[in-house]
Amino acid sequence: MIHAQQAIQPLETIRAAAEDHVRTQLGAGGDVAVSAGSLDPRLRLAPCAGPLEASSMPAGLRAARVTVGVRCTQGATWTVYVPVSIESEVQVLVLRHAAARGAQLTEADVMVQTRRVPGFGGGYVADPRQLAGRTLRRPLPAGAVLTPDALEADIVVRRGQQVTLLAASNGIQVRASGRALADGRAGERLKVQNERSNVVVEGVVESPGVIRVTP
Questions:
Q1: Report field, pTM of the whole predicted structure over 0.70
Q2: Which end of the chain is least crowded, N or C, by CB within 10 Å?
Q3: pLDDT of res. 29
């Protein structure tokens, strides 16, 4: 006797439900690509008699990868968890040539390209103006995509350099001459020796050659 093949739920419908859910939740446009991962082909699920229901954690939708629960509640009861990848097409700055650590990049050193990246494209340098006042933290090869963590603020005070100390007292700003005891970048704390009193004080690098003394 030949038995009729038991009907099963097509796995592609489950993947499609997961993708549709993510697109709907994101309001994704053409610059965002959503792709459900493969499911185990050995999975045999009873066909659902109604529409598939999908859900996910809202916070997870801001990540590059999210897990979507797809379930059936009509005619059969089952839930499948589907991994879904999110990618975006964004403009990024790419090095035209290899650059050494400490290099001060300009617009001539980079080119703007559109790349597909995981997630929503945050964490990339997209505007050449963002290179101003910054140097490479580490050497990078030609074609490398620039990220903020690859750059650091320029050293604007050098060890042994004569600097101006600024301090506020009773609403009056006092200036003094000092000598930097280390290299410093804008916003960093730095020890400086007052040239008149020889007292070592600590301040914040405010601008090239200027240290604001803090309590």
A1: no
A2: N
A3: 62
Spell out the residues 6+ positions from residue 211 whose beta carbon is closer than 8 angstroms to its own: 157, 163, 164, 165, 166, 178, 180, 184, 190, 192, 203, 204, 205
β-pair partners for 177: 164
Q: Which residues lie below 8 Å from residue 164, measured CB to CB, with a gap of 6+?
A: 175, 176, 177, 178, 209, 210, 211
For residue 204, count CB atoms less than 10 angstroms from its CB and return exposed for 0-12, middle for 13-18, buried for 19 or more. Answer: middle
**What are the angstrom distances between the C-alpha of 11 and each of 47, 67, 75, 197?**
10, 16, 17, 79
**Nearest C-alpha neighbor of 95 from the set 125, 71, 69:** 125
Which tokens hold the place of 146?
A: 């620039």
The rounded distance, in Å, linking the Cα atoms of 111 and 95 is: 7
- pLDDT confidence bin for 169, thresholds 50/70/90: confident
Q: Where are the beta strands (DSSP E) in the chain?
A: 32-36, 53-55, 65-72, 78-95, 110-118, 134-136, 151-153, 155-157, 162-169, 172-180, 184-185, 189-194, 200-207, 210-213
- Cα–Cα dist 81/111, whole Å: 41
Say which DSSP state 59 is in.
Answer: G
- 198-203-205-208 Cα dihedral, nearest 10 degrees: -30
Q: Which pLDDT value is given to residue 5?
A: 55
User: In angstroms, rounded to a whole number, what is the distance separating the alpha carbons of residues 83 and 36?
Assistant: 6
